[in-house]
Design goal:
Layout: E1 2-7, E2 13-17, H1 22-31, E3 38-42, H2 48-60, E4 63-67, E5 72-76, H3 87-92, H4 100-107, E6 109-113, H5 126-134, E7 138-142, E8 145-149, E9 157-159, H6 165-175, E10 181-185, H7 191-202, E11 206-208, E12 214-218, E13 226-229, H8 234-246, E14 250-254, H9 262-270, E15 274-277, E16 281-285, E17 295-297, H10 308-315, E18 321-326, H11 334-341, E19 345-349, E20 352-356, E21 365-367, H12 371-383, E22 387-391, H13 394-397, H14 403-408, E23 413-418
Parallel strand pairs: 2-14, 3-13, 9-10, 17-18, 21-22
Antiparallel strand pairs: 1-22, 1-23, 3-5, 4-5, 6-8, 7-8, 10-12, 11-12, 14-16, 15-16, 18-20, 19-20
Helix pairs in contact: 1-2, 1-7, 4-6, 5-6, 6-7, 8-10, 8-12, 10-12, 11-12
Bound molecules: ligand EPZ.
Length: 419
């Protein structure tokens, strides 16, 4: 079993490059099922989750070629043989559920196992199913599966009770082959939704309004080939920005769209960290003195829930008390217990965490409880006195390509160890 060992105290300096956005790559790969033409992608992040979603497509009959040397991916779904994705694969990763919309839209039927919940919440799919049935699908659930069928989806007005990212994606993709016009109201506005819409339009779909709370999709009859370049990963960028701040460093984070991480920039500046913006990079300079700031997670453009645990690591060493409000997921404070093992003073009260900053964190044996919590533990370890050993690092490797190597490159004393 591998663990990550971090020895705290180094100040990080230098340049670190962000990869493509995991939460763009997964829905876009799923959406290739709409088309019988070849889709080519470059600079694909070779993450465990990317291999899971491409395995799902292969299990359905798609031609998938990943070249690890060039990070190029070619997919052609002109020979789909099954409409029932492997339950084992779907169970591995929630985002596999995003194959439902394209399969239903193109073939009029799909049978897929219900995605598991995970540590951060029950993560229901009621909004996905409600939206697809509004487009005319007959949906039955039972025995741990969802079965949906239709003659042809019909465009409709879909209102989302919550701006769910996944539900917006599943419905937007399905609507591309529906008959007529669909409008998704109260849609998610994340940059990954815009990236997906840009991919869909590049294969001949007609999607407008992505990035706002109202997305219009005109159904089309045929699609074409495409080459797509993904947007950079705003959460990986934010994670590296906090790494510089928590170590009193001076780091240039490259391959960044500053507009995608406005809330993180604003909160770091409020905490006394200097953030200088470039065209596609940010420079983060800290003198190690961190002021407390309150964080309330919200759907985009609010503060991203995927950066909550990383900011909590930083606030654990602030010179005052911060209040964290997690409004997106009902159970996204599992990292608190792990931070406490390192000496952090944090109290949980429902959706609130009260973080009393202190200048001392000590290294400890801790466990990654989800992808972003694991990354946050690395950040705390970069500051803590002594050694921090992080187990269950498979969580971290789902969303960060070579985070150990990248942090070593800017001076972190960090390594992966076999235990
Ligand atoms: C996406 O998950 C991301 N994953 C998550 O990133 C991210 O945290 C989340 O959006 C919020 O930004 C991918 O894009 C692969 P949601 P998703 O549907 O689509 C409730 C990471 O670390 N909800 O917007 O599953 C749900 O319970 C991961 O990279 C319903 O009630 O998120 C949650 O409370 C973690 N019914 C809230 O909406 C539904 O049908 C947000 O979920 C769907 C969702």
């Amino acid at each position: 079993m591998n663990k990550i060992l971090v020895k705290g105290g180094n100040t990080l300096k230098g340049k670190i490059k962000v990869g493509a956005a995991k939460n763009s790559v997964l829905p876009i790969i799923a959406a290739t099922l709409l088309s019988d033409k070849k889709c080519t992608f470059t600079d694909v992040p070779l993450l465990n989750d990317v291999y899971v979603i491409t395995d799902v497509l292969k299990s359905l009959g798609a031609d998938v070629n990943i070249d690890p040397a060039t990070c190029k991916l070619e997919i052609c779904c002109n020979n789909i043989l099954s409409l029932e994705p492997s339950p084992d694969l779907v169970g591995k990763m929630r985002a596999s559920f995003l194959v439902m919309g394209p399969l239903l839209a193109r073939y009029g039927r799909v049978r897929i196992s219900l995605p598991g919940g995970c540590n951060i919440g029950t993560r229901p799919i009621d909004l996905h199913l409600k939206g697809l049935s509004t487009l005319g699908a007959e949906i039955e659930t039972g025995y741990g599966f969802v079965e949906a069928k239709c003659t042809r989806l019909r465009g409709a007005n879909v209102y989302l009770d919550f701006p769910s990212v996944g539900a917006t994606e599943n419905i937007m993709v399905a609507a591309c082959l529906a008959e007529g016009e669909t409008i998704i109201q109260n849609a998610a506005e994340e940059p990954e939704i815009v990236d997906l819409a840009n991919f869909l339009n590049s294969i001949g779909c007609k999607v407008t309004g992505a990035g706002s709370d109202s997305i219009k999709i005109e159904g089309v009859e045929s699609l074409n080939e495409t080459n797509h370049i993904f947007i950079p990963d705003r959460i990986e960028a934010g994670t590296f920005m906090v790494a510089s701040a928590i170590t009193g460093g001076d780091v240039v984070v490259e391959n960044v769209v500053p507009d995608h991480i406005r809330p993180v920039i604003a909160k770091l500046q409020e905490a006394g960290v200097q953030v200088l913006e470039g065209h596609n990079k940010v420079r983060v300079i800290s003198n190690g003195v961190i002021s407390p700031v309150d964080i309330k997670t919200l759907p985009y453009p609010g503060f991203p829930t995927d950066m909550q645990s990383q900011l909590m690591a930083l606030m654990s060493i602030a010179n005052g008390t911060s209040i964290f409000t997690e409004t997106v997921f009902e159970n996204r404070f599992m990292h608190v217990n792990e931070f406490r093992r390192m000496g952090a003073d944090i109290k949980i009260d429902g959706r609130l965490s009260i973080v009393k900053g202190s200048s001392v964190l000590t290294g400890a044996d801790v466990k990654a409880t989800d992808l972003r919590a694991g990354a946050a533990l690395i950040l705390a370890g970069l500051f803590a006195k002594g050694e921090t050993t992080i187990s269950d690092i498979y969580h971290i490797e789902r969303g960060y390509v070579d985070i150990v190597g990248k942090l070593q490159g800017i001076g972190a004393n960090i390594e992966k160890i076999k235990v």
